[in-house]
Amino acid sequence: MRKNLLSEIKRLKDISNVVILTHNIDFVFVQSLLLRSFKNAGAPKLTIFADAQCASEAFTRQSQYLSSLGRRYRVVPVPSKLGFRFHPKACLLSGDKSAHLYVGSGNLTFGGWGENAEVWAHYRSGEELAAFRNFHDYLNGIVDQLSLSQTIAQEVEDAFDVRKHSWNPEGAGNIDQDQLLFWRNGSGPALVDSIIQQLGGSGGDSCTICSPYYDEKAEAFDKLFKEIRAARTQVLVTEKGNNLTSSAYQHMSSVAELHAVNGVAPDHEGAKPGIVHAKFYSVQLDDEVRLLLGSANCSHAALTCDGDSGNSELLAFKKMSTEEYESEFLSELEMSDAEPMLEGDSGEAKEDETKHSVRILAARKEPDKLCIAYAPKDIEVVGICFEHGLEVADIEDPGVCFVKAPHETMYVRLRAKFQDEEIETEPHWVDHEQDLATTSYRRMLADVLRTHVHESSSSAEVLGDAVKFIVQDLQETSKRSAFQQRNRFVNEGGDVTYTRDDLYSTRISHAFSHRSIVSQSLPRVSIAELILHYLGYYDIDAHSETSAARDIQVESGIQSEAEYDEDVDHPEEIAPAKPVKPPKPDSPAELEKRRKKFMRFLTKMVETFESDYYSQHRHPIDVARDIKLVALVARALTQENYISWPDLYDATHRIISSLFLEDDETLPYAILDAASTTTSSPLLDPEVAASLFAWSLLIKEDPKSPEEADCLLAVAVAVSKFPMIWQSHQADALVEAVNRILHTGNHEYTYKEIHARWDSLMKLSATLRQFEKILGEGDLKDWLVMNQLERIQPGDLVFQGSRGFGVCACDSEVLLNGKKHVEIQFVRTGGEDCIEIPANYLNPVRGLLDSDEFLARLRSSGVEPLVLSQLCERTLQRRL
After folding, report:
1. CB proximity list for 140: less than 8 A, separation 6 or greater
2. Burial track 52-75 (b if 16+ CB lie within 10 A, e otherwise)
3. CB 268 within 8 A of CB 293
4. Prior bond of 189 cis (ω within 30°)
5. Residue 456 predicted with pLDDT over 80
6. Confidence check: pLDDT of 743 > 70
7. Of the candidates 49, 19, 312, 361, which has an alpha carbon nearest to the alpha carbon of residue 187?
8. Cα separation of 111 and 130, whole Å?
9. Interatomic CA distance for residues 5 and 20, integer angstroms
10. β-strands 120-124, 431-432: how paired?
11. Whole-number pLDDT of residue 321
C-alpha cells in the first residue's frame, strides 16, 4: 500500500516514455529526485499532466529553483470547470519490451510518492494489457480537451506505439469484458455508477470505504451504502486532516462502523507514521475481495456529479484473496481508539473567479515562433510579457496568439484587456519543443559522454558508447512527420535560387584560404565534447580547454541540494583531479572483436537511413543532427582503424544515396523541405555543411579503387543536387565548424590542402549540375546520335536521362551499336544491384566530350570540359 514509486522506478531498465497524472505537483521534487531516479531506467521522455491551478500556484512559488521545466520534461496544465479539479493520479512507464502502470491516490510530491499512506494498483504489460488500453483511452480523452495539443498527443501516442514496443497495448480482448480502469473527464455519467456496477448487488459480507474527504452531507456515502447492500459497512477516516462535518459524522456512524485510522510507520529508525491519503472501495464475499482504488474521494465532486460538472478522476479495479487484501492494504492502517478530529464544513475546492479570470493555458516555443493559448478566448490581447519587456502578439486563432522569432525565456505573462481593465496573468512556463523532442537514447548518450569527458576515457570507449546510442536514436524515429511540419521553418527573406556561381562560391573558398586549419592556438576538442555540442548539451565556444571538463559535469536540469540551503555563502570546494591513466592498447583479439561490433552498428545505421519510415517521418531537426553525428563517427571509426576503407566507402555511398540521390517520391521529406524555396530548415545550418565536407575528405581526390571512385562521384552528384545543404551562406561559420571537426582526429591538414579539396569538389559539382541541366533540355535519343564513342569500357561514366549518372560494370569492352545488355551501376542505387541496359541505349560521357557540337554547348554554358574529362578518367582507370 505504502509503495515508494521512486524505489520501484530505480529497479527498472530501458524505459523510453513516462506519463504521469497528478492533482498537485512539487516541481522541486521532480527535478531533485524524480529525474535522478530515471537515470538507470534509460533517461526517458517525461510528460506530466497536472491540475492547472495547482501547477500555476506551485510554479509561482518554486520557479526560481527550476531550470529544466519545459526543456527536459513537460508539464501539461489541465483546466477544469469552476469549482472542480483535475484529480487523477497515475504513472505509466513504457519501454521497448515491457511496461508498468501504477494507478493510485498519491500526488507527485515527496509525500504522495513516498511518505504518505497511499494506495497503488500495479499493472504489468505481460499480465493485464486491458489496463494499458483503458489508460490510453483515458489519456486521449484528456488531450482532446486541451489547447495546442498536437505535440502532447504525439507524445501520448509515442508511449503506446506498437512499432516501437514489442508489448502490444491493443492485444487484450473486448473492452466490455476487460475494462480495468474507470474514470471521468469532467463529463459523462457519475463515477459512483461504475463503483456500484463493479461492487454492488453481490450481497457481500462486508464493504469498506476509505477516504480522507467527504461531501458536507455525506450524499456520496449514502449512495454507496444503499446500492452496495453489504451485510457490514465500515468507513476508515484519517484521524487528523479529514474534512468531516459533525452532521455527516453522526449520520455515517448511525448506519456504519466508523474508524479513525493512522498510517503505520515504516520499520526503520526515526520513521514517522504517514498521513492516510488513500482512497479505496472494497467488497468482501467469502474469500474474494473486489476492490476499486485510486484518486476519487467519497465526495459529490468525485463520485456523484454527472453531465458537465465534477472532477476528473481515475479508479483501478482489482480482485484478490482476503489474505492478500489484508496484507497489502489493511495491514498498513492502524485503527485508533480516538474519534476523528472534525475540521471544516466542506473539502470541495472552490475557484477564485477574479484571480483566474484570465489565464495562460499553454506556451509552446517552436524554432520560429512562440504560441500561447489563453482563456477566455474573447479577451483583447495587448501583448506577451518577457523578462526583457512587452512584445506585441498576433492572433492566430480564437484563444491563441503568437510572436515570431522570440527571445529565449523560461516563462511569460500575457497582458490583456478584460472587463475594461488591463491585467497581467500569473507567470507561465514555456515548453521548448525542440528540446522536449529529444529521444531517451540521446539523453543517455549525453550522460555517458559527460562521464567519459570527466574521466578522459579512451577513444574506443567513447566510440563504443556513442555508436551504440546513435544507432538506437536513429531507430527511435519520432512520429512527427517532417512533411506535415513544412511550414515551421519560414524564411522571411523570400525565394532562394542556386546558380553555378553560387555552387562554386568564392565566399567560402576565400574563407578557407585565409584560415589555418591546423592552427596550433586552437584547443583540441575531444570527440565526446563535440558530440555533446551537437546534442545541444555543451557550448564549445563558451568553454575554454581548462574549464570544459569541469563545466559539463553539471547535469542540465538537476539542482544540487546546497542550492536550497539557507547558508550558501561557502567557498566552492573543488575535488583534486584524479591522475589519468593512459589506456591500454587493444590486443589483436580485442581489436578484431571491436571491429566486428562496430561493423554491426554501422550496418544497422545504414539500414535505418535507407528505411522508408526514416525518409517519411524523420524530423528535419533530427536529420540535421543525424548527419553531424554520423559524419563525425564515420571519420573517427576510420581513423582509429575500427572499420576498413572499403566498408567506409560502401556505407558512405549508401547513406549519401538514401539522403540525396533518390527520386523525389522517395527522398527524405526533411531534405525536400530544405530544398524548398520558402523554408529555412535546420539542414541549412553551417555545421551540417561542415560535417558533410569533413566526411567527404575521407575520400581521396585520386581514388585508388572502384568503390572509392563511385563514392566520390556520389558525393559530387549529391552536392550538385542540393548545394543549399552542402554549402552555407555563413562562410566563416562553415570554416570554423570544419576546423573544429578536424581537430578531433589525428589527421593534420594544411589550409592549402583543405582549400584545394573544397575548390575541387565544388567545381566538379557545379560542372555536373550544369551538364545535367544541358542534357535535360534535350531528348536522350538526340544525345545518342551526337555521341562519338564506338565501344564502352569497364568504368566508363554514363548519363541515362532520368536515371542519372552511372558507371559501366561490364567485364570487358562492348560495342555500342549492338543490343547486348550491359550492367550499369547507377549512383543513386548506393552501390547495390546493377541494372542491365541495351548497349545501343547507353550514353557514355566520354563520347559526348568528343563531339565538337556538344563541347560548344558546354563552353557556352560556362562549363569546363576538362573537369568532366578528369572525372571520366578516374572512374575508368580504377577498373582497367
Report:
1. 153, 156
2. bbbbbebbeebeeebebbbbbbbb
3. no
4. no
5. no
6. yes
7. 312
8. 29
9. 12
10. unpaired
11. 94
Q: What nine digits make up the cell of 784? A: 545518342
Give the helix ranges, DSSP H, for 95-218. 129-143, 150-160, 175-178, 191-199
Gyration radius from the chain CA atoms? 33
Q: Which residues of 242-268 are buried (b: 16+ CB within 10 A; e: fewer)?
A: bbbbeebbeebeeebebbbbbbbebee
**pLDDT of the residue at 511:** 63
Q: CA nearest 719: which of 675, 676, 670?
A: 675
Which numeric CATH code is attached to 359-436?
2.60.40
Q: How far apart are CA 587 and CA 122, in angstroms?
A: 49
**pLDDT greater than 90 at residue 760:** no
Give the C-alpha separation, 508 to 758, whole Å.
9
Dihedral of the CA atoms 605, 609, 614, 615 (nearest 10)?
Answer: 170
DSSP state of 1: -
From CA 696, how far away is CA 648, in angstroms rounded?
11
* Max CA pair span of the chain: 111
Question: What is the 3-state composition of the chain as percent helix, strand, coil, each rounded to the nearest 5?
Answer: 40, 20, 40
C-alpha cell belonging to residue 129: 494489457
Cell 467519497 belongs to 298
pLDDT band for position 488 (cuts 50, 70, 90): very low
Give the model confidence (pLDDT) of 532-578 as tens digits.
777 776 666 554 433 333 333 333 333 333 322 333 233 333 344 44
Burial 391-420 (b: 16+ CB within 10 A, else e): eebeeeeebbbbbeebeebbbbbbbbeeee
Query: CA quadruple 580, 582, 584, 585: dihedral positive or negative?
Result: positive
Q: 686-696 and 731-742 are packed helices; what angle lies between their axes, rounded to 10 degrees?
A: 50
| pLDDT tens-place string over residues 782-831 | 888 888 888 898 888 999 888 889 899 888 888 888 788 998 888 876 55
Residue 10 CB-density burial (10 A; 0-12 exposed, 13-18 middle, 19+ buried): middle
What is the rounded CA–CA span in Å between residue 845 and residue 438? Answer: 46
For 633-673, the pLDDT digits (tens) are 998 888 888 899 999 999 999 999 999 988 877 888 888 88
The interaxial angle of helices 506-513 and 751-776, nearest 10 deg, is 170
CA dihedral 417, 421, 425, 431 (to 10 degrees): 10
pTM comes to 0.70
pLDDT at 2: 57
Going from N- to C-terminal start, the domains of the chain cover 1-171, 359-436, 480-523+598-766, 778-877
Give the pairing of strands 411-418 and 288-294.
Answer: unpaired
Q: Following CA atoms 317, 321, 327, 328 in sequence, which dihedral angle do they give, to the nearest 10 degrees?
A: -10
pLDDT per residue as tens digits for the range 360-406? 999 999 877 899 999 999 899 999 999 888 999 999 999 999 998 67
State the DSSP code for 278. -
User: Thinking of the domain 778-877, which architecture would CATH place it in?
Assistant: Roll (2.30)
**CATH domain 1-171 topology:** Endonuclease; Chain A (3.30.870)
For residue 743, the surrounding DSSP H or E stretch is none
For residues 183 and 191, the answer to whether their CB atoms sit within 8 Å is yes
- Paired with 679 in beta bridges are 490
Name the residue with higher pLDDT: 871 or 495.
871
With contact defined as beta carbons under 8 Å apart, do 276 and 212 qualify? yes
d(CA 489, CA 865): 39
Mean of pLDDT over the chain? 81
Question: What angle (nearest 5°) sits at the alpha carbon of residue 379, between those of residues 374 and 383?
Answer: 70
Q: Name the burial class of residue 40, with classes exposed (0-12), middle (13-18) and buried (19+) by CB atoms within 10 angstroms of its CB.
A: middle
